Amino acid sequence: MPAGDGGHAVNARVSPEALEQAAEWLVRLQDGATTEDHAACEEWRASDPQHALAWERAERLLDKLGTLPPELAMPVLSRAPDGHSAGRRAAVARIVTLMLTVPMAWGGWRYAQSQEWTADIRTAVGERRTVTLADGTSVTLNTASAIDVRFTATERLIVLRSGEILVRSGHVPDAGPLRVRTPEGVMEPLGTVFNVRRYECSTSLAVLEGAVRVTPAASAAAHIINAGDQTRFNQQRISPLRIVDPALSAWTRGMLLADQMRLDELVTELSRYRNSLVRVDPSVAALRVSGAFPIGDSERTLDMLVSTYPVDAVQRLRGYWITLVPRT
User: Fold this and answer.
1) Residue 4 class from Cβ within 10 Å (0-12 exposed, 13-18 middle, 19+ buried)?
2) 142 and 100 assigned to the same domain
3) What CATH number did the domain enclosing 216 receive?
4) What's the rounded Cα separation, in Å, for the pair 302 and 270?
5) Tens digits of residue pLDDT in 98-156
6) Domain that holds residue 211
7) pTM
8) Angle, to 10 degrees, between the axis of helix 35-46 and the axis of helix 49-65?
9) How far apart are CA 187 and CA 314, in angstroms?
10) Is the dihedral of CA 34, 36, 37, 39 positive or negative?
11) Which of 197, 255, 275, 285 is the most buried (most CB within 10 A)?
12) CA distance 61 to 171
């Protein structure tokens, strides 16, 4: 079935098992496949209509990857020599995730990958990293974050492309002002510690020490945000100030703190640190959860939820897709 035919098939319901098998075949055929391998794949595809649908998604994914530079596309299909290695499992997981979202989320994924791979400094999913810049400024990057650093004689600029950072501003006599920029605006610290997070169309700012001057991109009006306050802004306006959530910077200590947080909100945050998919059944989405959860060990966090609350974790696709459901 050609990749370009039958758009209705792309949106048809495909079983997770068929998607996983298609991903396995895709990884296998990308690395020294024999004529027998290709024949076996054709036989698998023809043996079940679900297989044909899953393979069409795989072909469409290959078409999409072909529009990316090789340095961006290859990590998606990369695999270690050992067919049973963690590298192979990770490659299959990435492919399954992408096939689940083709074509709806392709544009967003493609943009995010480009942002990450072309940035000066970046972190992978689940990674946290602290760097010290030339002026002594310390920047801690959260999971899947990317920044550019542009220091000149007149300005010290950090561009947050994606993700989240905690900044402790440094100082060099006679150096230009330090600024952090996102598409929504510019933040200029006034000797401070502050947290910045990028969302799809907005930026959140929490000031932990000192103060930060914020100027939205489409506004000439600057606003001073003092220590203990947080806000969210887009290119036009700044939202009303709120008291900084004490749990906001817990990620820098490897923790996710929840105080009567909805289960679906907690899982959304936890998912930032995982390559696999975690979903919540709507019937338990509003369940209130409290606790301190390790973001560096999401499996342990899921075990903590299952052992403490009336939910079970149903695993599909060999653990790549997990759904929290009511305990029966």
Assistant:
1) exposed
2) no
3) 2.60.120.1440
4) 9
5) 565 554 444 554 555 555 556 688 898 889 999 999 889 999 999 989 999 998 888 89
6) 121-243
7) 0.69
8) 130
9) 43
10) positive
11) 197
12) 47
